[in-house]
Design brief:
By secondary structure, this protein is mainly alpha-helical. The chain contains 13 helices and no strands. The protein is globular.
């Protein structure tokens, strides 16, 4: 059992690293020396993901392609999330994204889970969600005082809400993760790529082919396939509570790396916000019920 949990921690830390890097890669791709448009970035993501997962699409039949639930999840977790997250990182720094996406996500998921699943958080979890709410309140005060990144912050908050809704609905409808992984790549691509090719603004010529390939592989293959596989392996070995506690590292890690590697400002107020949401996410996850088959020695 100890070896199983040690391996699970390794998978979990890999997910933490990849998810933290996602925010930096997105911000750099949309604002760096070769910036592309938000529409370009989503097209790269969907085109690469659909190419990677197309060979595995034989199991998707008439029942899947005509499922209103799957299409709803594709619109929420594929198109809406993609446009909101890349639009947010175009207009707001990655340090803000660290708070408003992974930092706020546990709080939004808990509230939606209470509403749609009837799963009310217990008393110990409320302390963690209270810390997250405090961090968001401090962040909101900073955003309203400055105003420079307000639109981007709103988009990032919207992207975390769309992903929380996607996750809660997928759980409510009992849909299998591998089915969702494939459908979430292929269905949005079928809808979006023709519209993108015909009507939406493009700036792919500003970037080199090597740069485009790197961004496409990271967003379309790593984040949609590799990270999903790692996440499922970690959850199987650790259980959702311990994995959630590990994921609480993401806001502080990604925010710190954004300040260190991208040169973004890290004010004392922003550092306090990151500390609040990371501590709150850890506390909320730590007090979730453990799955007996995934319990590890402490």
């Amino acid at each position: 059992m100890e070896g199983r949990c040690t391996g699970g921690i390794g998978y979990g830390l890999a997910v933490v690293g990849f998810w933290s890097a996602f925010m930096l890669v997105s911000r750099l791709g949309l604002t760096g020396e070769s910036p592309v448009t938000v529409y370009d970035m989503l097209a790269l993501r969907l085109a690469t993901a659909s190419l990677v997962l197309a060979p595995f699409s034989r199991g998707l039949g008439r029942a899947e392609w005509t499922s209103l639930r799957l299409w709803a999840l594709a619109l929420i977790g594929g198109l809406a999330y993609g446009l909101l997250v890349y639009g947010g990182f175009r207009l707001a720094p990655a340090t803000h994204g660290a708070v408003l996406f992974p930092g706020v996500l546990p709080f939004e998921t808990a509230l939606l889970g209470w509403w749609l699943l009837g799963k009310r958080p217990d008393g110990a979890q409320w302390g963690g969600y209270g810390l997250i709410a405090l961090g968001v309140g401090l962040m909101g005060r900073e955003a309203l005082a400055g105003g420079e990144h307000l639109a981007g912050d709103a988009l990032l908050l919207g992207c975390s809400l769309s992903w929380a809704l996607y996750a809660v609905l997928a759980k409510r409808w009992g849909l299998e993760p591998w089915l969702l992984t494939r459908f979430l790549a292929l269905a949005p691509a079928l809808l979006y790529l023709p519209v993108y090719a015909l009507f939406l603004p493009k700036n792919l010529g500003a970037a080199s082919p090597l740069w485009l390939a790197g961004q496409g592989l990271y967003h379309g293959a790593v984040t949609t396939v590799v990270v999903m596989w790692l996440y499922l392996r970690a959850q199987d070995r650790l259980g959702p509570a311990r994995l959630g506690a590990l994921m609480a590292l993401v806001p502080a890690l990604s925010g710190g790396l954004a300040a260190l590697l991208l040169g973004e400002a890290m004010t004392p107020a922003l550092a306090a916000v990151l500390a609040c949401v990371s501590a709150g996410a850890w506390l909320a996850a730590r007090n979730q019920p453990q799955q007996e088959e995934a319990q590890c020695p402490t």
